[in-house]
Write a structure and sequence with these properties.
Layout lengths: L1 E7 L5 H12 L3 E2 L2 H9 L5 H19 L4 E4 L3 H12 L4 H5 L5 E5 L16 H18 L3 E4 L3 H16 L1
Parallel strand pairs: 1-3, 1-4, 2-3, 4-5
Helix pairs in contact: 3-4, 4-6
Length: 168
């Protein structure tokens, strides 16, 4: 089983690229449940909301494991841990205890932010802080990751190389 998790601040191309490559490779993409939750309940999360999101995200990932040897994760509970730190300055142990992907692709917040109604941190200062927190969660969890930065074409090329290095 090879799980590759797209990780990082909002509006950095994670979902778009995960869908594109998932279709191209024929791999399942585990969608971001937090987006669905925000669309239904709004983006003003409390800690209980984050715990619900993490539990559901984990369940979606576990269900997807049975379908294919490789999968792309549009996020995982480790990103929910970054949300907890960003919003509340606290990360419950449960958020760090979920199974981890074999590789994380850390998307830098160096592309234009787009407000889609579910995103919260659009100023350059907020985006930089959220990006630092997201990367800190990867370091804290001790997981392997690669930085994905640059324009859209550069991001796609970096993601393709990272995936190729794992599955070849």
């Amino acid at each position: 089983m090879m799980r590759i998790c797209f990780h990082g601040a909002e509006s950095t191309g994670k979902s778009t690229l995960a869908r594109k490559l998932g279709e191209e490779f024929g791999w399942p993409v585990v969608r971001e449940f937090g987006r669905t939750y925000a669309e239904l309940h709004g983006p003003d999360f409390n800690m209980a909301d984050l715990m619900t999101i993490a539990r559901r995200q984990d369940l979606l990932q576990r269900e997807a494991m049975a379908s294919a040897p490789h999968q792309l994760l549009d996020t995982d509970p480790l990103m929910t841990a970054a949300w907890a730190e960003m919003l509340f300055g606290d990360v419950p142990d449960e958020l760090l205890a979920y199974p981890k992907a074999e590789l994380y692709l850390m998307f830098a917040a160096d592309v234009p932010w787009v407000d889609d109604g579910t995103r919260c941190f659009g100023t350059p200062r907020e985006r930089a802080r959220f990006s630092r927190i997201a990367e800190d969660m990867l370091v804290r969890a001790g997981v392997p990751y690669r930085l994905i930065a640059g324009d859209w074409a550069a991001r796609e090329a970096l993601v393709r190389r990272a995936i190729a290095s794992l599955v070849s």
